[in-house]
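Recall that a protein's primary structure is simply its ordered list of amino acids. Everything else, from secondary elements to tertiary packing, is in principle encoded there. The following example makes that idea concrete.
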Amino acid sequence: MAHGTTSRNGFEKIHGFKVPPSPHNGNLAILLAELSHARRLETPRPARYAFAMANPKRLFIAADHAGFELKEQLKKLRPDLPWEDLGPTNADRVDYPDFAFKLASQIKGDHDRGVLICGSGQGMMIGANRFPQVRAALAWMPAIATLARTHNDANVLCLASRFTSTEDAAKMLDVFLTTEFEGGRHATRVGKLNAPPTGC
């Protein structure tokens, strides 16, 4: 093994959680360093503590028919959060772009946050990111939700209801709301996301 690298099995044994299969697993140095940092920040917190830390003035949530049940479960698990439910009100078939656009249009201030849920999370993320003030991130584990905040200053969390348990979704919501943006070099990169592309 090359100097400075860590085996996948060794990392999992030391840090206590699974590393998803990846073409980069032969050399995990960079990925493992970031996941190790993220894991230190991903400890779930009670809803009141999450609200006190993040202090979102408005927390919007929306879904499509595939995400409706998980949307309702998250609201029940975290009743103290300042939810503003944008629908739907039942599990009848709907089109995810309608709800992605509806939520994204409400994200206006630094303290606004959103949660979007569909079957894979992909459609909601694509739709929400058409709005320039939105940085929507699809997360499938708490470490990814943490990095979405620390590195990308994401303000909308997208979840895949068909691949995410209620317990894992609640953990991702907690770390998303309680993790601060690191700024620094990441602020420069996020600033470029907010600027119109040049030289294309």
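Residues 166-178 form the longest helix (13 residues). The CA atoms of residues 149 and 181 lie 5 Å apart.
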